[in-house]
Write a structure and sequence with these properties.
alpha+beta
Amino acid sequence: MKITKHVIVRGRVQGVGFRDALHATALRHRVTGWVRNRRDGTLEATLHGWPDDVAQVLSWTRRGPPAASVSSLEVNETSGAFEAFEQRPSD
């Protein structure tokens, strides 16, 4: 059964290519959902897919791309299914 996770990433996560890199990582692991920057400087995403695939994306998200510095990762169960992975406009 597929799962859906809501994620908030804190740290130096904007202006470092995090959204693009997360998008590419999600596609590589066949995970759908979305990602966006938030006004408070965090990054928000929803990840939907098979548990092992979502876990791989979450593992990558804990460190992010080379220029990023993740200070914390908040992960919560949520609902919803997505057909693709998209980058949404900032909130």
